[in-house]
Specification:
about 110 residues; mainly alpha; about 0% strand
């Protein structure tokens, strides 16, 4: 299902050791479809995916953000259409909201 694929994309963006700028581009694209990335059932699904991967740690550090910024031009060059731009800050903010909601669920043991 789309929800399953989207949750896997979010899990990867949140926890991938070597961040892939394409994951962050896809998060923005998913959000632009109108899909609610912050809906409680979706947050629960992402949380389950993170919990299932014992190595997965949410990483939204400044270092990761800087590494991604350096990759935008080189790695997204073939993905972006002429005149299209990519706003890493927009996808980063979405992921910060998702990460906070996951933390809240964990604290409540939901």
């Amino acid at each position: 299902s789309d929800q399953e694929a989207f949750a896997e994309k979010v899990r990867a963006a949140l926890s991938r050791q070597s961040p892939a700028i394409r994951d962050f581009y896809d998060i923005t694209a998913i959000a632009n479809t109108g899909f609610d990335l912050t809906a409680s059932d979706f947050i629960e699904l992402v949380g389950r995916k993170l919990a299932a991967d014992t190595r997965a740690q949410i990483d939204l550090s400044k270092g990761k953000q800087l590494a991604l910024r350096e990759r935008i031009q080189g790695e997204l060059h073939g993905v972006l259409k002429t005149g299209e731009s990519f706003n890493l800050d927009a996808s980063w903010k979405i992921l910060e909201v998702i990460a906070e909601k996951i933390r809240q669920r964990e604290e409540l043991n939901l």
